[in-house]
Amino acid sequence: MATFVLVPGGWHGSWAFEAVVPLLERAGHTVHALTLTGLGPHDDPATVAATNLDTHAEDVLRVFERADLTDVTLVGHSYGGMVITAAADRAGDRVSRLVYLDACVPRDGESCWSLMNGGYRQSFVAGAATTGYAVRPPWRPDGDPRRRPHPLAAFLQAVRLTGAHADVPRREFVYCSGWEDRTPFADQRTRLLADPGWTVHDLPTGHNVMREAPQAVAALLLDEAAALVEPGRPARSSSLTHA
Question: Which fold has domain 3-239?
């Protein structure tokens, strides 16, 4: 049975995966869905102000150590891609698979800020105007009311990588094509498609794929998506549909 550690994106907590977790658990797997430091409802302003990307990577490593996890499938959505990259780089051989759900895939020295487009950067600046350290969630008509202000330093801090994360045996990127007019991840998709160390999947959803298509996300994580790849061909790229 597999072990999944799920890391949410900006402004979100473990609830972002609430529709996916039972599908994985029903299949007999162990699942840890995280709420990162500074995103909890009881985190005080001092905690939020002091939290950065390193803090969030340490959140993941503490889960690994506390539960003595190995052979982990580490999953990150959006900003969570920054976190899983930093954590995998520091985790030794505990991680066997990295899955980026429409997420940042940083190289050394890059940050969430540097990987985002102008629209996102504008929302970071506007969202932090009140406190200077916490970014209010941007208004969206379908925004989850549970979203929390996100530590600004976590969006801004550049990741520092040794390169050990590249030794993870399986690395997958899921590109959500249903918001191509606004996505900041199109260039990443192009880059990773050209890299033989990566498998790239396309899903025809908006960015909040866990809510829009939880069954498709679970199927991908459970490797059921492999059935969509032509037998005998490497799973370099696949196009997935959702119910």
Answer: Rossmann fold (3.40.50)
Distance CA 96, CA 231 (A): 23
User: Does the pTM exceed 0.85?
Assistant: yes
Whole-angstrom Cα distance, residue 196 to residue 170? Answer: 11
Assign residue 109 a region (left: φ > 0; alpha: ψ between -120 and 50; beta: otherwise).
left
**One-character DSSP codes across 69-100:** --SEEEEEETTHHHHHHHHHHHSTT-EEEEEE
Core vs surface per residue 191-220: b (16+ CB within 10 A) or e:
ebeeeeebbbbbbbbbbbbbbbbbebbbbb
Domain ranges within the chain, ordered by starting residue: 3-239
Region label for 6, one of left (φ > 0), alpha (ψ between -120 and 50) or beta (otherwise)? beta
Cα separation, 29 vs 222, in Å, equals 9
Catalytic residues: 78
pLDDT digits (tens, 9 = 90+) for 116-160: 999 999 999 999 999 999 999 998 887 889 999 999 999 999 999
